[in-house]
Design brief:
The structure holds two protein chains of two kinds.
Chain A: H1 20-34, E1 50-51, E2 55-56, E3 63-69, H2 76-79, E4 84-87, E5 90-92, H3 96-106, E6 117-122, H4 128-140, E7 145-152
Parallel strand pairs in A: 1-7, 3-6, 6-7
Antiparallel strand pairs in A: 3-4, 4-5
Chain B: H1 14-28, E1 35-40, E2 59-64, E3 70-72, E4 75-76, H2 82-90, E5 120-125, H3 131-157, H4 161-169, H5 177-190, E6 195-197
Parallel strand pairs in B: 2-5, 5-6
Antiparallel strand pairs in B: 2-3, 3-4
Helix pairs in contact in B: 2-3, 3-5, 4-5
Classes of the chains: A alpha/beta, B alpha/beta.
Chain lengths: 160, 202
């Protein structure tokens, strides 16, 4: 009889997975905190043009988004392929822009109202006529700070 | 009656649930922020103000027509040459006397601009111009200004202009913000961004 009993078979002990949920929860909370949900569902085609002389748009709550482009494929049957404007979740006409800007302004706190920027997310195949009309409406609504939202990249990529 | 111990809840599936949530948030996450070319629109004046008279040589007309061709001062130009052409125009410094430009490095032609302060870039487009092309041209024009501003900022303060602006917009910037703002103002005065976006003619 030996005094020292051999312990087990000497194989590697199983790794405890008890802390796995903790790790996963940690990751989960990280992603929950940094998530920004898409608040608009796009109804227009929206391939942004490229540019490299860009400025970042921080402060997401101070931005009004105006989308434009031709309707997405699943709406083309009813709305055709003519480029359209999208405000919030629905198609809009050029005369709705001023009202939209007013409503957006009213929903913000008073001291922030003149810091609002309008981000124009326009599909690169859109004609400038529509964009100019939007710009004209924005001038009338006195929303003069605009940003042509682009993707990061060489500008010459737009010419292809 | 025998006291029954509360049965332990099996926590083995906790990881599965957490994974499910994790994957959901992974898919819906968009971390990147938007970026783009920021511009300011001119306000609409009710009273018809007399537009200031500009000399022909101080206006640089860039037209993108409906076919996407680039016409600079009525001549067709390759897109890749636009940036340099704009720089040459702005940096020409052909003025004399009051209008002289002592920091310009251009050839001082009498046919080009007097002074960057006076020079105006007029970007025109057609109603049928594609937005992508318009943005590409706009980008090149902004790039030309940035090149010149970087040059002056490097000469005066040994730092890129774009770097200064980034630092100024950074909320965590540790340093003298007022001084930085003043420097940015100085550079902006040397090369004011006079980029006019005319309404399309047709």
């Amino acid at each position: 009889m030996s005094k020292f009993k051999k312990k087990g078979e000497g194989g590697t002990p199983a790794i405890s997975t008890a802390s796995l949920p903790d790790i996963v929860f940690m990751l989960l909370f990280f992603f929950m905190v940094v998530t920004v949900m898409r608040d608009n569902s796009l109804k227009v085609q929206n391939i942004l043009p490229f540019a490299d002389q860009v400025e970042k748009l921080d402060k997401k709550n101070l931005i009004m988004y105006i989308y434009a482009g031709k309707p997405s494929p699943r709406y083309q049957e009813t709305f055709g392929t003519e480029a359209r404007i999208q405000l919030n979740d629905k198609y809009a006409s050029i005369s709705d822009v001023q009202q939209f800007i007013k409503e957006e302004r009213l929903s913000k706190r008073e001291e922030l109202r003149d810091k609002l920027t309008t981000a124009l997310k326009v599909d690169k195949e859109t004609n400038m006529g529509l964009v100019s009309d939007i710009k004209q409406e924005l001038r009338k609504a006195e929303a003069l700070k605009i940003n042509y939202t682009t993707k990061q990249g060489e500008a010459s990529l737009n010419l292809e | 009656m025998a006291k029954r111990a509360a049965p332990e809840v099996n926590a083995g599936s906790m990881a599965d649930i957490a994974f499910l949530l994790l994957i959901f948030f992974l898919v819906t996450t968009t971390i990147e922020t938007d970026s783009g070319i920021t511009r300011k629109l001119p306000p609409i004046d009710d009273e018809q103000e007399e537009p200031p008279i500009l000399k022909e040589r101080n206006i640089f007309v860039v037209l993108v027509n409906s076919n996407g061709d680039l016409l600079v001062e009525d001549e067709i130009m390759e897109f890749k040459n636009l940036r340099q052409a704009t720089i040459d125009f702005l940096d020409n410094g052909g003025g004399l006397g009051d209008e002289a430009c002592d920091y310009c490095q251009g050839p001082r032609l009498t046919s080009s601009s007097d002074n960057p302060v006076k020079a105006v870039v007029s970007l025109q487009n057609d109603r049928k111009t594609q937005y992508g092309r318009y943005i590409a041209v706009q980008n090149e024009l902004v790039a030309a200004y940035n090149v010149l501003r970087d040059r002056e900022a490097n000469r005066l303060y040994n730092i890129d202009f774009t770097e200064m602006e980034d630092a100024y917009n950074d909320p965590e910037f540790q340093g003298d913000k007022d001084k930085l703002k003043e420097r940015i103002g100085v550079i902006k005065e040397l090369f004011p961004q006079k980029l006019s976006e005319a309404e399309p003619k047709r």
